[in-house]
Amino acid sequence: AAAIDDAGAAEEQRQSLAQTEQGPDCVLRCCSFIMIVDVLVLLTASAACVVSLIICLETAKLAALALRVITVGVCMLLCLEVFGRAGCQICACLRKLFPVLDYWVGRGVLHCFIAIAMGGAGVKGEDENISLFIEVSSISMLAIGVFFTLGGLLCFGALERRHQRLAKSTENAKRELEDLEKRRKELQDQVGLKSGRLDSKQTLP
């Protein structure tokens, strides 16, 4: 009877999982694509600031250099936070230290800060090509920041977190289903052994 109950529960969970897995989660896929674009923009901005620091280290003012360093640090912080979303446990600790990164509005504000810092730091002796590179990177960063801010105001961040919780609950249900399957097989083996012993006793003279 216990084996039948476990088999019925496993079948019900299998049917519910089949209903939830009819197709890929388009929301999470779109969010993953947005995060990939975000990382590329952040790495490009970091590279532009590092090149500017190396070339203008002796001619630029200390305040402008410090602003460039802060910009690179914030870019790396945001990149590590994205890696934490992807499953890196070490990087996931940043979300506990900086809970504002878990919200689209907070990310958007930080992106806009980076864009303003990149465009506002006047570095003397900077090459025109590097200045153009930094200007394009700051515009891209500002566009991403505005997108995140508007998306947060339109509750896209809440929608992403809801689908993440749904995906996590589906994974937990899969694990429970696997455990039920193992338990059902163990019970079936035990029932088979008991029935075999009874048959052997009945056949004895």
Question: How is the topology of this model organized?
Answer:
Layout lengths: L1 H19 L5 H30 L6 H24 L3 H9 L6 H17 L7 H26 L2 H48 L2
Helix pairs in contact: 1-7, 2-3, 2-6, 3-4, 3-5, 5-6
Tell me what the structure shows:
This protein has 205 residues and is mostly helical. It is 84% helix and 0% strand. The protein contains seven helices and no strands. The protein has helices at 2-20, 26-55, 62-85, 89-97, 104-120, 128-153, 156-203. Helix 3 crosses helix 4 (89-97) and helix 5 (104-120) runs antiparallel to helix 6 (128-153). The longest helix has 48 residues, at 156-203. The chain starts with a helix and ends with a helix. Residues 1-7 have low confidence and may be disordered.
Which short descriptors sum up this protein?
single chain, mainly alpha, 205 residues
Described by the principal axes of the CA atoms, the overall outline is elongated
Helix content: over 70%
Tell me the strand percentage band: under 5%
Order of helices and strands: HHHHHHH
As a whole number of angstroms, the C-alpha radius of gyration is: 28 Å
The residue ranges in which pLDDT falls below 50 over 5 or more consecutive positions are: 1-7
Give me a quick take on this structure.
With 205 residues, this protein is an all-alpha fold. It contains 7 helices and no strands.
